[in-house]
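Before anything else, study the sequence and fold tokens given here and see whether the fold suits the sequence. Record follows:
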Amino acid sequence: MPLIDSSYNPPLFFKNGHLSTIYSGLVRKVENLEQIRIRITLPDSDFLDTDWSYGKSPSNKLVIIIHGLEGSTKRAYIKGSAKLLTQSGFDVCAINLRGCSGTANKLFRSYHSGATEDLQAVIEHVLQLDEYTNIYLHGFSLGGNLLLKYLGEERQLPKEIKGAVAISVPCQLADSLHQLLQFKNALYARRFRGNLIEKLKLKQELFPDNISDTDIDNIKTLKDFDDIYTSRAHGFKDAMDYYTKSSSLQFLENITVPTLIINALNDSFLGSECYPIEIAKHHRNLYLEIPKYGGHVGFYGSNNFTYAEHRTLEFLENLA
């Protein structure tokens, strides 16, 4: 499909990528959304906590939402999306990835950018409810990469899956990591690293034989974390093997349902390889929108609904 021309033109303050990213992540609040928690038991005996929101009337349309790195269903970008969607006739199942719901998961493993088996488990749970004939996937950052990989892997998609929207997606993980290790992203990287190490210390208490104090002391960067924990816990050789196998870029050609990717040009987390322009130009189902502004999941909008949330609703309504 041709690239989509973007109409996003925010106020001057939000044309700065860092300011829009910080506002979205730390300042924005979304109130008056009811979320009902349902725990799903996974095939390996672990669990996922999902938070469900419903519209005023029964619906056969469900949006499954996946958060980004060290996010949760309580983040404003998840709640804002769920609020607008439920007001518009969709039900929402927002996934807390393993260990992200406020309760530590049971196993040494947790979540990562390519763990599509967990998304598959949620979809299977939804299908067993036999309530939704139209299912849509919606992800942010890491969650966007995860859903794109899921859609492009060699599997028979359930007929109920009708489309997807992915926002601020690091389609090429090594490229994104390279950006996060730059000085321009030092504050974000430090925050991510701190949160990940705190969780790893909890893992160490539960699995002292799997992780040592020296291991934790050696984590100076996000790549170190993936070398020392992510790769070991999830069956990869090292961080680069993890990035190579989990990047969604290599799976985009195989996507068979209408899918929208919105990646801002001034997203400091994304390098050039995270904008799959040539793939989208010749793809029947992939729509790529590259707004000039927006930062990382930072698309400002009026009435506390972001531009990305409105675009997501518009895209999904056109598929319904």
